[in-house]
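Q: Predict the bound structure with nicotinamide-adenine-dinucleotide.
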Amino acid sequence: MQFDHYLDNARVAPNTGARIEVVDPSTGEPFATIARGDATDVQRAVSAAQRAMGNTLDGAWAKLSPVERSNLLFACAAAVSQYADELAQLEARDTGKALNTARTDAAVLARYLQYYAGCVDKLHGDTLPYPAGFTVLTVREPIGVTGHIIPWNYPMQIYGRSVGASLAAGNACVVKPAEDASLSILRLAEIAAEGGFPAGAINVVTGLGGEAGAALLSANRGIRHISFTGSTVTGALVGHAAAERHFPAVLELGGKSPQLLFDDADLDQALPVIVNAIVQNAGQTCSAGSRLLVQRTVYERVLDRLARQFALLRSGPPSMNLEMGPLVNAKQQARVRAMVERAQADGIRVAARGTIAAGASGAGYYQEAVLFRDVPPDSELAQEEVFGPVLAAMPFDDEDAAVALANGTQYGLVAGVWTRDGARALRLARKLQAGQVFINNYGAGGVELPFGGVKASGHGREKGFEALLGFTALKTIAIKHD
Ligand code: NAD
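A: Predicted complex:
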């Protein structure tokens, strides 16, 4: 199978003819190629998007009325539901994720499109108080052409929340999917075109981060806003480029998110959620609950119960629908393995390990779940994102110590608190440095709930109405009539 870029509602071969192999992570076997885009391909995508906007919002896409735009997004959501199985199969093969997880991703994508479709005709400005003789109003206009750099862990969901919101606000999009996960995104652009999106509204350029991704950020390319999800290191490059070119950037970066488990918590409710929060998508989730802070009075009991649950966790190919699939590529597998080995070499104890299913290919990029205990707060395992199914557990004595541990990394994406004490829950919710705090649950991921980080986890918000506002340019119009 050979996949081209998707620009101006058509498949377009790469300018140079260069291609990138697409490997099935469950077998290590190549099964397709994608176009290896360069600056010329990116420019072509941006020009198509600019035409769709027009010079004065008179392009084929920009001149649609809000209701027409909303209807196209609703139709696209329905088409995603119709093609959900095909999209899930494509995604599972491309990324290795369990088929059921990929199906959930398709359903969440449809929900994002529906949500933002429903927002389009509720997006409006204001009239503002000002001295007599004036009427002052604000209008929310599209920003123009927006760039979307998407990672490989949840391509469909992240496409939904960033491209969905940008289209709803009336912008045209240029999307650069991750080189390890481009197939579903290419298909989505085609589905949108089949559903009536005008040429140039959605353009997908595939390729390497350092080539097609970097080209999107280059000077004078015509991008007016960038939305990036990925590593903290690349996020800094993107933020730097955005600052130099004077366009806004939403950066959704990494995390080392803590769960704080107090001795009055309902363990039957908490423990399965805590396990799922680290093994979901084989730990390749920015908001994974990768640190578990447990009050010392229940530490041994909790570790004992968790160890038994970890021992039951299995990794296998997507079709087996086990708790985990393989990691996305050989580089991620090597990275996770190296971090596990370094932790062990430093004397950090493994409390339990999962298994790799007998049916899994030895050439696949599998990594069993690992539970580490008594992890020193200053160790690599407690400070750095592993992006694999590796949980770092550590004890604390009181609330202040728990907060200090929780806030003691460079990250601040999400946090969970498990307690039956309502006042403590609220106190901690205010003290934790995070963009989302979950009390007696973890990862409430509704599309309506604004999401994003503080500190090295990034800035700006995606999801919810908040994100939609970020994709608009607010213009104030002051009229003197007396
Ligand atoms: P990455 O941040 O390098 O890649 C994410 C996206 O950015 C991809 O589309 C990539 O092509 C693009 N990109 C890379 N370099 C670029 C550049 N110079 N200019 C513009 N775009 C560029 O992530 P990765 O290398 O795939 O993974 C490395 C680590 O990143 C992982 O181990 C994990 O810790 C983290 N990660 C986090 C998330 C998240 O959701 N927070 C997602 C993916 C990876």
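A: The longest strand covers residues 134-142.
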